[in-house]
Amino acid sequence: MGLILGVLLAYLTGSFPTGLIVGKSLFGKDPREHGSNATGATNIFRVFGARVAIPVMLFDVGKGALAVVLAAWAGRNAGLPREALQVMGAVAAMLGHVFPIFAGFRGGKGVATGAGALIVMAPTAAIFCAVGFLLVVGLTGVVSAASMTAAIILPLAIALGAQGRPANPWYLGLGVAVALFIVFTHRANIRRILKGQEQAFEKFRFLRRKNRQKGA
Predict the structure, then answer these.
(1) CA distance 189 to 207
(2) How far is the C-alpha of 176 from the C-alpha of 181, rounded, in Å?
(3) Cβ partners under 8 Å of residue 175, min gap 6
(4) Secondary structure of residue 87 in the 3-state scheme
């Protein structure tokens, strides 16, 4: 029962529709009807601006972190390793964010919530993912490409011992699952990237700007 409760709590935590609540309460708009039709921070930035997107992102990261803690706490007597409980909590939270029961099962793409879970579980691997994200978004301004890059880096970082010890099989399995899941949730973005139609945020291309200034 503790294991079931932990997974349920993690899913419900991930299901909290931060972006949807903010969009409707502050602007009277459903972000799922604009931009990329998602409730995540990137689309909130696209539709409502940075002043709203940053708190939404931080809250979604917090959802992932809290879900992992709740799953490990509730299932502590289930006879499973703590890592296994954390992985179940992370997966449940990401599924909750993408398919939220409180918002008609139409949510975001799971990146920020997954990042929050990762920060608790494998902080060093999270740093490698963050570096990959910043490099890609800094060069291209394409957040979707940066998110997928970070997701693909995750299993590689865990497999190569980013935490300073042999790869935990539960964490490694999670890394592979997250990479596949994030690519899946970005399948529409991939099609737009291949067609050259994916939106790039020029404000985010800080590395390209520096290169231009040096060239000038």
Answers:
(1) 22
(2) 9
(3) 125, 154, 155, 156, 157, 158, 159
(4) helix
Please give the pLDDT value at position 211: 47
pTM, to two decimals: 0.88
Low-confidence stretches of the chain (pLDDT beneath 70): 163-164, 209-216
Longest pairwise C-alpha distance within the chain: 64
CB 105 within 8 A of CB 54: no
- To the nearest 10°, the Cα dihedral for 18, 21, 25, 31? 90
pLDDT at 213: 47
Radius of gyration of the chain (CA): 17
For the chain, give percent helix, strand, coil, nearest 5: 75, 0, 25
The number of C-alpha atoms within 13 Å of 31 and in the hemisphere containing its C-beta is: 29
